[in-house]
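Record 1 of the preview.
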Amino acid sequence: MDEAEGRPADLGNPPGSAAQPFLRPSPMLLQGQDYFFRSPDTLLDFQERMFGADLVADEPGDPMPCVLVLARAADMEMNELSLALAEHDIRMVRIDADRCLDLALTIYTDTPLIEFQRWLLRPVLVWRRHFDITAIPVDPTTVHGAYVREQWSAVANWLACRGDWEQVNSVHSTEHLDRLTQLQGASAVGLRVPRTAVTTMPGRSRPGGGRCIVKTAGHHLLEPEPGALRGLFPRPLDIRLSGEAREPAPVLVQQYLDADHELRVFVIGDRAIGFRVQKLDPAQLWVDPDSVVVERVEVPEDLVQRLLALCRRWRLDVAGFDLLGVGDEWVFLEVNVNCDWRWFEHRADCADVSTAVHDWVRSRFAELSTAKTGWGSW
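->
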């Protein structure tokens, strides 16, 4: 990748100095990563297309209760949810990061109401998923782009944690749920975790004393240009190549564990749905997904209880857990709060997670709508 190439380092030489700057080596996790995905901004949401085309008659009266989703156009899980909710006459509206410019939106601060396009709505359940500020189609290096990003960042964060409507996976809890915090929490509920070091000198760190892998401390994907995503996947630590080299930012060096199998468990409310995943290396899920084998499996009850305890601890309603089966132990790797489940369902030829998510959202929506019917007078 061009943007992964090193840049001249500032060695403290004064302007005009004859000293020549050197090129910093490319960060370890950017070396050899050729995964690239262009995220489309095509509108596929069923309800938005129907309402936008005036195929649904407006009904006068009180503000309509709705599910408000903050995502991006390519969030197929939310496209599917929109259709499922429409079948039960539940309104869903979207604010997508890659389609939010020039959006007709007014949010009232003294009442739980919004004006979206020409509709007056009352969100009762808000779900922020892939509303990534980096996806907003502006140039952040310009004053205009920086301004737009800053405004949307502030408002989106507020929408996702406002106190007078309910949230799925409250941002209050999830915004600080980084990988290191996750490892501490998993250990606290009795799950084994790999030995881990945080370092800018990966060649000098071997937690566990044997083979190790290097991981990002942040997201698996970078979006230096809106809609253009590049992979940042785990890779084996080769001390012969890394040596004493220093990384420009901290990375995770983690003990490598020989696993019997890998497990992805989706927790929806109080349900746990598991998939066994067979792959050759950590990046295969993204770079060669067709070769990954996925099958639906039952989750052992003792593991279910630990994962439910973690969801209560972190206030998660819908989450995807990655674990390794090592002997008779389960090793926690990470939890994904913006979990995408349709790919796993497709590979395993089932729709159990989608059904559980749709049922949970409908049930929660009905519960909240019934409890707050008095709001209609606003």
